[in-house]
Amino acid sequence: MNADQIRQMIETGLPGAHANVSGEDGVHFEAVVVCAAFAGKLPLARHRMVNATLGEYMGREIHALQLKTLTPQEAAA
User: Fold this and answer.
1) How far is CA 36 from CA 15, 24, 53, 69, in A?
2) Where is the chain membrane-spanning (predicted)?
3) Whether pTM exceeds 0.85
């Protein structure tokens, strides 16, 4: 599993989302995800939305994923 594969999974699972994913060791990753669907949602709900796009990979191939989730308006500020 690499950062680009994770980015593609997030962007496919959250239509209209833009993800920037990094991770040097192949199991620990950081992602900034910008998605209009996050509007009105608390951070925990946003993280669950992202984690759902990764399904069974969470806790297996992806040991840790540090997330920053923003709406387009929050990202522009």
Assistant:
1) 9, 28, 16, 10
2) none
3) yes
